[in-house]
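Record 1 of the preview.
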Amino acid sequence: MAVTIAAPITGTVIPLTEVPDPVFAKALVGPGAAIDPGEAANLTVTAPVSGKLTSLKPHAFVISHRPDQGVLVHLGIDTVHLKGAGFTLRAEAGQQVEAGEEIVVWDLEAAREAEKSVIVPVVVLEADVEDLTLAEAGPISAGDALIRIG
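->
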């Protein structure tokens, strides 16, 4: 059964290999794509897929859409060091969410002031890259198809 992973933010799709972090760039966490929000000052980050919000941190969350597979959305690179600054959670870990539902509101100023990358990797955990079809590099709007599984 095919699953569509939507873009959680509006921006420009870039290959995971261009993410300035080797863990993501080498797909060590899993395959996927990334989105550069450009000059956006604030982002409403939405659920890319329906499922259970199994992990929620200010800078990252995982939604399990299958018992054996989840989708990681990581807001920026090394943004864990911001200790939540600029992030407002709109959901709670453990809850069921629908694709497009608001999860985090992100004020990017804190990340930019700390000179952190604001690129957003979207990774399918426990997936083989051969099973994925990725959106082409270029502009994308929140809710548009970013990754297709199967």
